[in-house]
Request: fold
Amino acid sequence: MSVLVFTENWDGRFKKLTFELVSYAAKTAEMLNTTATAVSIGKVDDAELKKLGSYGAKKIIAIENEKLNILDNQAYSALIADLAKEEGAQVVVLSNNNTGKAIAPRLSVRLKAGIGSGVSRLPLSLEPFTVYKRTYSGNAFAHQVIKTPVKIVTLAQNSFDLTETSDSSVIERRQVTVDGEILKTTVKDVQKQTGKILLTDADVVVSGGRGMKSPDNWAPIVELAQALGAATACSRPVSDEGWRPHEEHTGQTGKIIAPNLYIAVGISGATQHLAGISSSKYIVAINTDKDAPIFEAAQYGIVGDAMKVLPGVIAAVKELRK
Amino acid sequence: MKILVCISNVPDTTTKIKFLEGNNKLDTAGIQWVINPWDELSLTRALELKDDASTGVKSVTVAHVGSAASEPTIRKALAIGADDAIRVNMDATDAYNVATQLAEVLKKEQFDIVLCGIESSDYNGSLVGGMLSEMLGMPSVSAVSGINIANGEVVLTREIDGGKEVVTVPSPFVAVVQKGIAKEPRIAAMRGIMMARTKPIKICEPVECENLTEIVTFEKPEPRAKCRFVDAENPKQLVELLMNEAKVI
Ligand SMILES: Cc1cc2nc3c(=O)[nH]c(=O)nc-3n(C[C@H](O)[C@H](O)[C@H](O)COP(=O)(O)OP(=O)(O)OC[C@H]3O[C@@H](n4cnc5c(N)ncnc54)[C@H](O)[C@@H]3O)c2cc1C
Reply:
């Protein structure tokens, strides 16, 4: 018996989201009187793998195989399903990020395991196994019972606190053979930006809406983000107009994020926008219209013109956070 | 080449979500039902590909698992431009069951490209496309934000952290699509609405399948603390509150 957690790496490094997953898996394992086993695929050194232990993984299975260098949904799910069987996993935990969404549903079929996706709390009960998951784009949460012997959970990013432990862990490097037949994905080109804080990983996000009036007015948004070490985001019309790149679009049809702080500038707060940001711990709104719905979602607000308010906010951040 | 677009029928995105007594069923009174936003975008992209003769796309079919009550949504897809539709006659339950029904459809009829939305805006599962592909042993590509066909080859763009990858997989395959796949959803024109009335909807009876999951209760998110307003002349106070009260910067 065990709880198996898939720990994705990025160029050999784990992220906070990986440690959230491992913390979640370890706590779930504790509830089930068993232990958490992490599975890492790709080139990761021992020092990095050890970190998974410090968040509660007892066993760390590390697999390196160059055939797995690109994400092939079929190959990955076949491998993880086999490991889940070998390890007698009762629960398999993955992130609800792009990779998790690519693998988890295939895994569900392979293991005939029900899935709770976008889960943000520990299981509410073990008998029946009940998870707490996002539904109606954040307008409701469901208590969902998973009826199968093996359960899959995909965890929402930034929804679970890290828990560290000094317990020991073992790293087991395993060789696997990957049947070339199963690999169907060919990557022809990669375009990647490095060094930028990813919107989905950011603790603080500064976001601009149509109230910014023109793409030429974005300098204070970017400057505030830089001063706060934050990522930048925008509302849908802003990316539709091409004022900002598409990957910044947050909301129901864009990115769903849960930073500690979301600063919405010139954003009205339409339901579809809130669907992407309502799990933020704090929301700040800056808007000329005191009746804008964004103020109902916000904990702090300033009624005023963004172009006049932002310079003062930037100056204060620079002064106070020295 | 034939494209199948799987569509889900969901409450309009501005709906105030309420539940019936017992909190285990959506209160559907007054709800306007629409094509799930991502499915609407996949349909739009599929039709754009069909419009371009060089792609070799000959037909676009929509498939939906749902009762007769969702027929208006299917008619809307036909009005937007789908050639025909398949409806599996049952109330959609959990993702595994829905995927099983769609897999049956695909066992009977061949399609080269199957498009599913990244999630439905009701259960936010992100499951059906991936499950369906595994059930059929087909390749799948997730987080697809672009699909193009050149010289008979289908090229997909998938989003990865911090960028994009251009990938190919052999047909038939399932592409799970998201933002970027099409710009604006295509809107039905009068002519389309008229034509939709006579386009065929094939009705299939469901196969036996158990649900792997069940929602027992819904709850509304906890109300947020009321907004505290800071004077526009005093932005410093806002920063102080964020540092000392909320402790988020
Ligand atoms: C199916 C569907 C899906 C959608 N998905 C999304 C989504 O994922 N994300 C999303 O964002 N939207 C989405 N939308 C669109 C959504 O309904 C809104 O239209 C959109 O969020 C509005 O963007 P906005 O707040 O930037 O612009 P507006 O609604 O135009 O608001 C601009 C705000 O700026 C304020 N303002 C004006 N001037 C100033 C100034 N000088 N200083 C400060 N404030 C100022 C105004 O008071 C106003 O509140 C979706 C819509 C549909 C139908």
Notes: Chain A has two domains: 2-182, 199-320. Residues A 209-211, 235-238, 251-254, 266-268, 270, 272-273, 276, 286-289, 292, 305-306; B 13, 37 surround flavin-adenine dinucleotide (CB under 6 Å). The domain at 2-182 of chain A is CATH 3.40.50.620 (Rossmann fold). The mean pLDDT of chain A is 97.
